[in-house]
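Support case: iron/sulfur cluster complex. Customer-provided input:
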Amino acid sequence: MNPVRQIAFGYSTQCNIRCGHCVASEASPGTAKMDFDRAKDIIQEMARCHVTGISFTAGEPFLFFDDICKLIQLCRENGIYSRIVTNGYWAKTQEHTDRVVLELMSNGLSQLRLSYSRWHQQHINRENIVHAALSCKKHDLDYFISFVTDFSEKDDSFEQFLRGHHLKFFPEPVIYFGRASEFDRQRVFTDYRPNVCSMNPYLSPELDMFACCDAANHFLKTDFLYLGNLRNDNIDALFWKSETHVLYHLIRTMGLTNMASCLGFKAREIVQYRKCELCEKLFNSKENLCILTKSATSDLINWRR
Ligand code: SF4
Ligand code: SF4
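Agent response - structure generated as follows:
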């Protein structure tokens, strides 16, 4: 049986705005862009490797609207589910947004994901998000809004705005990497949840492939999430690496909490970490990674009820 393969496709890291919480880049704005013909070849190769879903993300994909339309067309021709993640800067009027949404649909887009937060909305009028969502509803294009939040009261009015317009949204925790790494954060105390992660791979414009799209190149001390570069390795081999890596497998099945406990973290400490923070503690440390790697097929794998 072929594994389910999905990927976040970073055609370019360029963005037209600069959100204070962005994980995609550190201080300077991204400028990398994939060669268009190379992107087409990669998508066709992904289809041959049984990739069933591609999410166009990274910077702002609509900056390359014509290219992205051709790439989603290619996805449709190859039976691949396609999604675009956008900040909605282009949805300035309802009329214009309707035209754009119809064009996306005629090219075969499966889903539009709209990013929304108090950081995005310092640059983008929140009415744009309403225009985009209403166009999707009107023309029957699947959509949802990613409401990025740090769960503080500052976000209440932003959430209420979405509810007031009856829009489909899902809260998504801020990830404290990239520009958000400097943010003050309140300690969270959760119950003792497993912290399992599905780990969706990410392909960068430079053709580097990572095992996770949220942290990508942020685990620099160990490069734990780096899979390889498509100039040197083929797509199937990199997916295979991601699917068969024993520690990734344990993150997907056993979860980070049990791995941390096996490593010696106190239960009282574990419940204070957000999921990606705990992941960073475990895998962006050479010492911890070494212990976990050595015990992966012995103590660690047996650390279960
Ligand atoms: S969070 Fe998204 S919209 Fe904001 S700067 Fe980063 S890539 Fe651009
Ligand atoms: S838990 Fe780890 S693998 Fe999962 S999204 Fe966070 S950083 Fe990536």
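The chain has a mean pLDDT of 93.

Case will auto-close in a few days if no follow-up is received.
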